[in-house]
Design goal:
GO terms for molecular function: DNA-binding transcription factor activity; transcription cis-regulatory region binding. With about 350 residues, the chain is of the alpha/beta class. It has helices spanning about 10-15, 20-30, 35-50, 80-95, 110-120, 135-145, 170-180, 200-215, 230-240, 255-270, 305-320, and strands spanning about 70-75, 100-105, 125-130, 150, 165, 185-190, 220-225, 250-255, 280, 295-300, 330, 335. The longest helix has 17 residues, at about 200-215.
Length: about 350
């Protein structure tokens, strides 16, 4: 019989209906958490039997002893990256290592600076969830003799090969659009912004491929949401409601925030009903501070598993750099059906 998986921070966050970052603050900086959220998190911890990990002393990377891994995350406010961190931390603890996390705040220059700090600290390895292409940082780490693994982005251009662990974003767009088409949508749109981001490009291509494969009267429309935040989706919902006859009947949103804002805007105006008139799917499956009025169907990213796989690749790299083979590992998303999308005849309607 397989061993039962340990309850983690992500489980507590899901049960309490808060972000992983809020649970982390509850455990480490309780003064930052409201009494209401403290009560929810405390109840979730008691119900699940979660046991917080012991706090370790501040690591001393340059000293002989416990190896320290540095993880530069794109944005700590995005729960994908805190989920990745949880997976990294699990593997590190299983192997007698420590990990320190640094937040790039979606700023490429800040990312460069943080990688420089880790190099100066002489960490044993660097895990890099990149803002955009990371050739400069990979090359800098390599020049310092530090192994580096890229997460949530493909192998960077213009440098020697590096391991990359990422979600298959082509599948994110394709599977989401296939679900819309399967349930009767024909005017499929992809609502996005920041089109220079690799993840956005791949999701768009996946949606387009699904629409092309469907043939018939299925059509594709690209909508610029003006941003990737809830307020951007909200404004888009108001705009689409102003001309309901021309609106798509199925929308894949590049971010869950856009999807939630879109639903709020559509339902506020009332000209288009979700999902009867418009089905909406989010592309991430992340925790958000605002709850969707209609539960959101999402493509759930394998964040914790991405962290585990990345750290396992790091261990292999560190053990024997001469024989380690660099490659790209694509992890598949999971479609989680909820009330924001229609159902086809015969579908389970209990979720």
């Amino acid at each position: 019989m397989p061993a039962r998986r340990k309850v983690g921070v992500s489980d507590v966050a899901k049960r309490a209906g808060v972000s992983i970052g809020t649970v982390s603050n509850y455990l480490n900086y309780p003064e930052r958490v409201s009494d209401t959220l403290k009560a929810k998190i405390g109840a979730a911890i008691a119900e699940l039997g979660y046991v917080p990990r012991r706090s370790a002393p501040a690591p001393e990377p340059s000293a002989k002893g416990t190896p320290v891994i540095g993880y530069v995350m794109t944005d700590i406010e995005h729960s994908l990256f805190t989920s990745i961190f949880e997976g990294v931390q699990e593997v590190c603890e299983e192997n007698g290592m420590q990990v320190i996390a640094l937040n790039a705040s979606s700023d490429l220059e800040r990312q460069h600076a943080l990688v420089g700090i880790l190099i100066d600290m002489k960490v044993a390895g660097i895990l890099l969830s990149t803002v955009q292409d990371s050739a400069q940082d990979v090359a800098a780490a390599r020049a310092a003799g530090i192994p580096v693994i890229v997460i949530d982005h493909s192998h960077p251009h213009g440098c020697e090969p590096a391991c990359a662990i990422l979600e298959n974003n082509l599948s994110v767009g394709r599977v989401a659009a296939e679900e819309l088409i399967r349930t009767g949508c024909r005017r499929v749109a992809f609502a996005a912004h920041s089109f220079d981001y690799e993840q956005i490009q791949d999701r768009q291509l996946g949606v387009q491929k699904a629409v092309m494969a469907a043939g018939g009267d299925a059509t594709f429309t690209l909508i610029d949401s003006g941003g990737l935040l809830i307020e951007d989706g909200y404004q888009l919902g108001l705009t689409l409601s102003g001309n309901p006859d021309a609106a798509p009947d199925g929308i894949v949103a590049a971010s869950d925030a856009v999807a939630v804002g879109l639903i709020i805007g559509l339902e506020e105006r009332g000209a288009l009903r979700v999902p009867d008139d418009v089905s909406v799917i989010g592309s991430e499956g992340v925790a958000l501070p605002t709850v969707s009025p209609t539960p959101l169907t999402v493509m759930q990213a394998p964040g914790v598993d991405m962290g585990r796989k990345a750290m396992m690749q790091m261990l292999d790299y560190m053990e024997d750099p001469a024989t380690h083979v660099h490659g790209t590992m694509l992890l598949e998303p999971t479609l989680v059906r909820r009330a924001s999308t229609r159902r086809a005849p015969g579908d389970d309607t209990t979720d």
